[in-house]
Specification:
The complex is a heterodimer of chains A (about 650) and B (about 290). Chain A has 29 helices and 12 strands. With about 650 residues, chain A is of the alpha/beta class. In chain A, strand 6 and strand 7 form a beta hairpin. Chain A is elongated, with a radius of gyration of 29 Å. Chain B has a single domain (about 1-295), classed as ABC transporter involved in vitamin B12 uptake, BtuC. Chain B has helices at about 1-30, 40-55, 60-85, 95-120, 145-165, 165-175, 180-185, 190-215, 220-235, 240-260, 265-280, 290-294; strands spanning about 135, 140. In chain B, helix 1 (about 1-30) runs parallel beside helix 5. Classes of the chains: A alpha/beta (about 650), B mainly alpha (about 290). Chains A and B meet through helix 7, helix 12 and helix 15 of A and helix 3, helix 4, helix 9, helix 11 and helix 12 of B.
Chain lengths: ~650, ~290
C-alpha cells in the first residue's frame, strides 16, 4: 500500500490525469476489493447490454469457467498444489443440480447451496486421502480422478450416460410465462454475482496472512513447516476450496445451459481449464478470470479461430509463457511496474530529495544500510527478546537455574544401515551461545533437524522445558519456541524482505482459511516483522525482493526471520558460510548479543568464530559426541585439533 | 485359454505404454521436463503415412520416410526456437510446472494442425505385415502385435544399452542430474536435450506407424497415448526408464485382465482407482519423492 500511496502522490505532482482515477480507487479501497468491484460492474454491464445476444451467452459460459479458474489460481497457481480435480467437481456441481432439479423439481438456486455443501463434504473425504501426497504424487493420484469419473459418467444410466443430463429449470426461478430475454439476463446476472463472490473470496485469501502461508507452502513445504505452517491442514483446505469453487462453476453451468454434457468431466476439460489458468496468469485471481474469458471468447468466435481452437490455444499458451511465465497478468504487471519506474525516474530527476529515496530503493545505498547492521541497536532487539522470554516462562517464574531448557537425550539416527547419530546427549540452559562443530558428515545438520523436528530420531528423546517433544511435528515445535535457519538460504523468492520475516510472525496457524475472508491480520505480522528489522538496522532493505540481495543480506534476513518470533531456542545452521572475513566479524558481534538473551545452538565450520562467540562447544564426529567444553579447552583439545584442524 | 489371450493382448498394449513411458522417462532424465507431446508424434506418424499413402498416392516407403523426416525436422525446430527461448534464456523458467506446460501447448498445437490436415475420422497406416493372425493352439497374436512387441524390445534394449554402456549415455544422465555440473565437465547438455527430444519424437512416430493398424488413430489419440505413457513413467519415478518399461507392461496386462474378468465397462475405472491407490499408499517406493526433490 505504501508503494501505491507513493505512486499516487507522485502522479499528483506530475499531474498525470489518466492514471489519477485508477490509483485513487485503489488507495481508497482495500486491494482485494478492486478486482471484485471490476468483475461485478463490468460483468453486469456486459450481461445487461449483450444479455440476449450470442456474445452474452458466450460471456456467461466463460464466467462459469472463470469461477472454477479463480479457485485454481489459489490452489494450483499460488499454492502450487497441483490437483486435477476441477473438472470432476465441476461435474459434481452440474450433475448434482441437474439431478435435484429434474428428479425433485427443486429450483436451481435452492439446489446450488445443497450441492455445494455436498461437494464440500465429498472433497473433504477425498482430500483427506489424496492430500497426504505432495508434489508430483498429488498430481498423478488426482489425474486418475477425471479418468475414473469419465468412465463412470459415460456408463451410469441415471446421469444420462453419453447423452447428458437435461434440466427443466433455470438459475433464475422462472415460470413458463417468463420471457427468454428476462431469463437470459437474470441468469447472467446471477452468474456474475457468483463470479464476484468467488473472486472476492479468492483475492481476500491471497492478500491475507494465510495467503502468505500459502505462498510459502507453494515454494517449499519443508520451509513452511519450519515456519509453523500446518501444511497438512492447509493442503486439505486448499483442495476443498478448489473443489467447492469448481462445484459452484458447475452449478452455474448447469443452471445457465440447462444441460450437462458428459464431456464436462473429461480429462480434456480439465486440460482446457489449466490452459485458461496458465494463459491468464496462474498466481493471479483476476488473471485466471481473464484467461477463462479469453479462451471462451476465442472458442465462441465461430470463425477460423474457433474451428482451429487447438492450434490457437497451443500457440497462445507458448507465446504467453515465453514472454512471461505468470501469463497475461504477469505481462500487465510488468508493464505497470515499468510505467511506475518511468514516473519514478522522472520524479527523481525533478527533485533531489526524491533521488536519494530512489537510490535507496534501487539498492545503491541499501547495501551500506544493510551492511551496517546497527550493532548498537541490537541492544533494543535483545530487550524485545528478553521481554518475550520472560513472558514465555513467566507463568512458573522462569526455569530454575540448573534445569536445562532443551535436552537432547541419547539421540540415535540410522538411515538404512548407516548410523548418522549415535547416543548424543546435550543439555542447553535458557540463555547462552553454544557451538556445534565437527567434520563433514559428522551429523551436525541431522542433529539440528532432530531438534527442529524435520527428522525423527531412531532412538532417544528431545525435551523442551520438561516436555517430551520427540514426536511433535516441526510446526508445533515452532509454536513452542524452536526457530531455525537453514544451511542453504531458504528465503521465499518473489516476496519482499518484510514478507519473508513476517512469515515467522504469523498468528494465523490455528485459523481456518475461510476466517481470512472477513479479516486479514497480515498487517499485524508485517508490523512485528518491521520492528525486528528496524531493531537489526535493516529497515532500508525491507521492501526489496529477497533474491536481489547480496548473500550477506540474505543471511541476515534469515537471521531476522528466525529471531522475529522471539524464539526460546534458536538453531543456526552455518550462518557464516559464504561470508567474508569482515562480514563474519560483524556476524560474531551480533551472535554474542543474541546469546545473551536466548538459547542459541550454532553449527559452524569456522572454528575461530565458534571459539570466539561460544561459551560451550560440542564436537561431533561420525555421529558421536567427542568433545564438550569451553572455548579454552576447545582450542587446546588434542581431539579437536586432530579432527578439525589436522594437527 | 481366455487368460492366455488376455495376457498376450495385455502385453501388446502394455508394450505400447512401455515405449512411451521410456520416451517420457529418458527425456525427463536429460531435461527435467515431462514431455506430454510424445504421443502426438505417434499420431502424426500414423495419420501422416496414411494420408500420404492413401490420399496422395505416394509409395509406402516414401510416405514413411517423408513423415519421419517431417517429424524430425519439426521437433528439431521446436527445440531450436521454443525450448531454447524457454530454457536457455536469461530468465530461466522456474519449476517443473511451467516447463511442463510448454509440451502441453505443443500437444494442443500438433493436435490442431492434425485436425486441419487429416480431418476427424479414424485412420491408420497400412499394415506392414499382412496375413492372418498367428496361432499356437488357442492362443492368437496379430502380426501387427508381433511387430509392436519387436519394436518395443529393440527400442527398450537400445535405450538400455545406450544409457548403461556408452559415454553418451553417461553424459546424458549427468545432464539431467546436474546441468551446471555437467556443463562444467564439458558436456554439451543442450545437445543431449535436443538429441533425445528429436530421437523420442521420431521413435514415437515409428511406433505410431507400426501400431495404428491395431487400434486406429484420430487427431486426438495422441493425448491418450501420452497420458498412459506419462502414468507408466510416473510409476517408474520419471527418471528410471527400466522401471517405466516394466510399469507400462504391467499396466497393459492389468488393463486387459480387468477388462476381461471384472467388467468391460468399468475395467478402466477400476484400473485407475488401483493406480491412484498405489501412488497414495506408497509414494516413496514409487520414486515420487525423489522426482519432486530433484
Amino acid at each position: 500500500m505504501t508503494g501505491l500511496g507513493g505512486f499516487a502522490r507522485r502522479t499528483e505532482r506530475t499531474g498525470l490525469a489518466g492514471l489519477d482515477g485508477l490509483t485513487g480507487v485503489s488507495s481508497r479501497l482495500p486491494r482485494s476489493l478492486t478486482p471484485t468491484a471490476v468483475v461485478l460492474v463490468a460483468g453486469a454491464v456486459i450481461v445487461l447490454v449483450y444479455g440476449q445476444q450470442y456474445t452474452g451467452s458466450v460471456f456467461v459460459l466463460a464466467a462459469c469457467y472463470a469461477i472454477v479458474t479463480a479457485g485454481m489460481a489459489v490452489q494450483i497457481g499460488f499454492s502450487q498444489q497441483i490437483a486435477f480435480s476441477q473438472s470432476v467437481f465441476m461435474g459434481v456441481g452440474a450433475y448434482g443440480v441437474a439431478m435435484l432439479n429434474s428428479h425433485f423439481a427443486m429450483p436451481v438456486l435452492v439446489a446450488t447451496p445443497i450441492v455445494l455443501v455436498g461437494a464440500g463434504l465429498v472433497a473433504l473425504l477425498l482430500g483427506s486421502v489424496v492430500t497426504r501426497a505432495s508434489g508430483l504424487a498429488l498430481a498423478v493420484a488426482t489425474l486418475m480422478l477425471p479418468l475414473i469419473a469419465a468412465g463412470y459418467v459415460s456408463s451410469a444410466g441415471y446421469l444420462g450416460g453419453v447423452v447428458g443430463a437435461p434440466l427443466t429449470g433455470t438459475l433464475w426461478p422462472s415460470s413458463a410465462s417468463t420471457s427468454t430475454t428476462v431469463i437470459a439476463v437474470a441468469d447472467g446476472l446471477i452468474v456474475v454475482i457468483f463470479l464476484a463472490i468467488a473472486v472476492f473470496v479468492a483475492s481476500r485469501i491471497l492478500t491475507s496472512d494465510i495467503g502468505l502461508e500459502l505462498f510459502v507452502l507453494g515454494v517449499d513445504e519443508r520451509t513452511a513447516a519450519a515456519m509453523g505452517v500446518r501444511t497438512p491442514r492447509r493442503k486439505l483446505e486448499l483442495f476443498v476450496l478448489g473443489c467447492v469453487f469448481a462445484a459452484l462453476g458447475g452449478a452455474a453451468y448447469a443452471g445457465t445451459q440447462q444441460f450437462v454434457p458428459e464431456t464436462l468431466v473429461d480429462p480434456t476439460s480439465e486440460l482446457a481449464l489449466l490452459i485458461m489458468l496458465f494463459i491468464g496468469g496462474r498466481r493471479s485471481v483476476i488473471g485466471a478470470v481473464i484467461g477463462a474469458l479469453v479462451i471462451q471468447y476465442l472458442q465462441g468466435a465461430s470463425n477460423w479461430v474457433s474451428v482451429n481452437i487447438l492450434v490457437v490455444e497451443g500457440l497462445l499458451l507458448t507465446v504467453v509463457l515465453l514472454v512471461d511465465p505468470e501469463g497475461l497478468a504477469g505481462i500487465v504487471n510488468t508493464g505497470l511496474a515499468w510505467l511506475r519506474r518511468q514516473r519514478g525516474a522522472a520524479d527523481a530527476a525533478a527533485s533531489p530529495a526524491a533521488s536519494v529515496e530512489a537510490l535507496v530503493a534501487d539498492g545503491t545505498l541499501a547495501t551500506k544500510e544493510g551492511g551496517q547492521w546497527a550493532i548498537d541497536r541490537v541492544g533494543a532487539a535483545g530487550a524485545t527478546l528478553a521481554g518475550a522470554s520472560a513472558v514465555a516462562s513467566g507463568a512458573d517464574g522462569g526455569v530454575a537455574a540448573g534445569t536445562p531448557l532443551l535436552e537432547v537425550r541419547g539421540i540415535g539416527k540410522e538411515y538404512g544401515g548407516l548410523t548418522v547419530l549415535d547416543d548424543v546427549t546435550i543439555r542447553l540452559p535458557e540463555r547462552g551461545l553454544f557451538g556445534l562443530c565437527g567434520p563433514n558428515g559428522a551429523g551436525k545438520t541431522t542433529l539440528l533437524n532432530v531438534i527442529g523436528g524435520s527428522v525423527r530420531p531412531s532412538q532417544g528423546t528431545v525435551i523442551l522445558d520438561g516436555e517430551d517433544i520427540t514426536r511433535r511435528p516441526p510446526q508445533e515445535r515452532f509454536y513452542l519456541g524452536v526457530s531455525r535457519t537453514f544451511q542453504a538460504v531458504h528465503l521465499i523468492k518473489g516476496r519482499t524482505v518484510l514478507d519473508n520475516v513476517a512469515v515467522a510472525c504469523l498468528a494465523s496457524h490455528t485459523s481456518s482459511i475461510v476466517t481470512r475472508v472477513a479479516r486479514s491480520k497480515l498487517d499485524d505480522a508485517r508490523d512485528k516483522a518491521a520492528r525486528t528489522l528496524s531493531d537489526l538496522g535493516m529497515r532500508g532493505i525491507q521492501d526489496r525482493e529477497v533474491s536481489s540481495l547480496t548473500l550477506e543480506s540474505q543471511r541476515m534476513v534469515e537471521l531476522a526471520r528466525a529471531l522475529a518470533p522471539n524464539p526460546r531456542v534458536l538453531l543456526l545452521d552455518e550462518p557464516a558460510s559464504g561470508l567474508s572475513e569482515e562480514q563474519r566479524h560483524r556476524l560474531a558481534e551480533l551472535l554474542t548479543a543474541f546469546g545473551e538473551r536466548t538459547c542459541v545452538l550454532l553449527v559452524e565450520h569456522d572454528l575461530d568464530l565458534v571459539a570466539q562467540v561460544s561459551e560451550r562447544i560440542f564436537v561431533l564426529s561420525s555421529g558421536r559426541l567427542v568433545f564438550d567444553g569451553g572455548p579454552a579447552d576447545f582450542r587446546a583439545s588434542p581431539v579437536v585439533n586432530s579432527l578439525l584442524v589436522g594437527r | 485359454m481366455k487368460f492366455g489371450n488376455l495376457v498376450i493382448a495385455g502385453i501388446v498394449t502394455g508394450s505400447i505404454y512401455a515405449v512411451f513411458a521410456v520416451c517420457v522417462a529418458v527425456w525427463y532424465r536429460v531435461s527435467n521436463i515431462l514431455n506430454l507431446a510424445v504421443g502426438d508424434f505417434a499420431m502424426v506418424g500414423a495419420l501422416g503415412v496414411d494420408n500420404l499413402y492413401r490420399v496422395k498416392g505416394l509409395p509406402l516407403w516414401a510416405a514413411i520416410v517423408s513423415t519421419l523426416a517431417v517429424v524430425g525436422v519439426f521437433s528439431y525446430m521446436y527445440d531450436q526456437v521454443v525450448l531454447r527461448l524457454a530454457l536457455d534464456g536469461r530468465r530461466q523458467m522456474e519449476g517443473i510446472v511451467v516447463t511442463f506446460f510448454f509440451t502441453f501447448a505443443l500437444s494442443f498445437f500438433i493436435d490442431g494442425v492434425a485436425k486441419m490436415l487429416f480431418g476427424t475420422d479414424v485412420h491408420a497406416a497400412p499394415a506392414l505385415w499382412n496375413g492372418a493372425s498367428l496361432s499356437w493352439g488357442s492362443l492368437h497374436l496379430e502380426r501387427a502385435g508381433l511387430l509392436v512387441l519387436a519394436c518395443a524390445v529393440i527400442i527398450g534394449g537400445a535405450f538400455w544399452v545406450y544409457i548403461r554402456y556408452t559415454l553418451g549415455g553417461k553424459a546424458l544422465e549427468a545432464s539431467g542430474e546436474n546441468a551446471v555440473g555437467a556443463r562444467i565437465a564439458g558436456i554439451d547438455t543442450k545437445r543431449y536435450r535436443r538429441l533425445i527430444f528429436v530421437g523420442t519424437a521420431v521413435i514415437a512416430a515409428i511406433f505410431g506407424i507400426v501400431e495404428s493398424p491395431i487400434t486406429g488413430y484420430t487427431y486426438l489419440s495422441g493425448a491418450t497415448i501420452s497420458l498412459t505413457g506419462f502414468l507408466a513413467a510416473a510409476y517408474g519415478g520419471f527418471r528410471k526408464p527400466g522401471r517405466a518399461l516394466v510399469a507400462g507392461l504391467a499396466i497393459g496386462v492389468l488393463e486387459a485382465l480387468l477388462g476381461g474378468y471384472v467388467s468391460a465397462e468399468y475395467g478402466d475405472t477400476v484400473l485407475y482407482a488401483i493406480l491412484a491407490a498405489l501412488v497414495l499408499a506408497w509414494p516413496r517406493g514409487l520414486g515420487f519423492e525423489s522426482a519432486v526433490t530433484q
